[in-house]
Every structure is written in C-alpha cells, then in structure tokens.
Design goal:
heterodimer; A: 111 residues; mainly beta; three-stranded antiparallel sheet; globular; B: mainly beta; seven-stranded mixed sheet; four-stranded antiparallel sheet; 51% strand
C-alpha cells in the first residue's frame, strides 16, 4: 500500500490530453513539493516534473504538473505513442512514513 | 555527461549479505546527496535510503523496511556510492537504482541503469 495514491492505469488516443492524479496527505503533498517520474518499459525512471510544475531541460512542454492542497496532477497533452510508460509521483513526507514516498504508479496506454 | 553505473547484484540466499556499488562520473560527486531506490519485479518504486554530502556530515537516512539491515556509504575520493545489505529477505528482491539527488527533496535528476538482486534459496 503506497503512501501516495495513483490510479493503476490510464489511457488515451494520440493527440488527446490525459491527466494522472496523485493523492496524499498534509504530511507529504500538503506541505512539500511533488515530483513526477516517467519509466519507459525496461528502463530506469526519468525525472519529468520537479517542484510541482517545473520541467527539466529536454522535457517537452506537453508535460505539465500542478498541485492543489493534498493532491497533484500530471497532464500530458498531444498524447504520442512514445508516452506509453509508467508514471510515478513522489514527495517528501514529514511523518514516520517518510522521508521519501512514492505513488504506486500509473501505467499509461496509448490506444 | 553524468553517468551512474551500478554493480554487485546477483543471487543470494535469505539471511545473506550483498554489497552494491555505484560508480559516478561527469559531475562533482562530493557535492551531491545520493540515494538508492529499488523496484521489485512488476512493482512500483520504493525509496531505500540516502547519504548526504560532506557539507552535511555524510548523514544517512533509511526507509523503515531496511533500517538496521542496510547501510549506505560513500567514498568521494573514488566517486563511489555503496549499499551494504545484510540479513536479506526474499522481499528485498528488486532492481536497485542509485540516483543523484538535488537537495533534501526526492529530486532525482540522474539514475543508473539498475542492478538486480535476487534473494532466494
């Protein structure tokens, strides 16, 4: 059971906009930054979003992050086949669950 | 170019020990916090622990699931990170990644390719 809750799966067709949610609590998302990672099949995770909504150099602006209260979202617009991957949210946790907690991951399928 | 290369994985019996290494290059290793993250087969990511840099006294933190059994260390002169794993359990079976951290938060900007540890009799 992950401290941060994500839907196990999501899907969309090419060109669509898809959002993936990440729900937490006051000890993690509610008081700390949220990070998002993309893991393509058979590869190591890659940083996608940091500090809630910042993109590292090289990450397309089709990817965006937001946070409100104890929840966060990752949005992918103009969906492409190469976006098919697992997506994980992460946050610092100030409680005994921490200090670093991940969501269970969301498998995105591009139909 | 930043590179992180893990090694040392393999098959070990329950109760056994294993030491993983992570060789870093392409950046000033001594400046950075370094973390270990693992992923059991077909499962999600789980943070294992971290070592801070010299400026922060090389302090370490661990996930509850490994505390007291795993030890993280580093050798800045060799640009290397280590994970000593003792009293291994079957549930420790996973791919272990080392990751460079940007400060206190789970801001892991570079990851290694991972090394597989299998705990089985």
């Amino acid at each position: 059971q992950s401290v941060l809750t994500q839907p196990p799966s999501a899907s969309g067709t090419p060109g669509q906009r898809v959002t993936i949610s990440c729900s937490g609590s006051s000890s993690n998302i509610g008081s700390n930054y949220v990070y998002w990672y993309q893991q393509l099949p058979g590869t190591a995770p890659k940083l996608l979003i940091y500090r809630n909504n910042q993109r590292p150099s090289g990450v397309p602006d089709r990817f965006s992050g937001s946070k409100s209260g104890t929840s966060a979202s990752l949005a992918i617009s103009g969906l492409r086949s190469e976006d098919e991957a697992d997506y994980y949210c992460a946050a610092w946790d100030d409680s005994l669950s921490g200090p670093v907690v991940f969501g269970g991951g969301t498998k995105l399928t591009v139909l | 170019e930043v590179q992180l290369v893990e090694s040392g994985g393999g098959l070990v019996q329950p109760g056994g020990s294993l030491r993983l290494s992570c060789a870093a290059s392409g950046f000033t290793f001594s400046d950075h916090y370094m973390d270990w993250v693992r992923q059991a087969p077909g499962k999600g990511l789980e943070w294992v622990g971290r070592t801070r840099n010299k400026a922060n006294s090389y302090t370490t933190e661990y996930a509850a699931s490994v505390k007291g059994r795993f030890t993280i260390s580093r050798d800045d002169s060799k640009n290397s990170l280590y994970l000593q794993m003792n009293s291994l359990k079957t549930e420790d079976t996973a791919v272990y990644y080392c990751a460079r951290s940007r400060g206190s938060y789970p801001h892991f900007d570079y990851w290694g390719q991972g090394t597989l540890v299998t705990v089985s009799s």
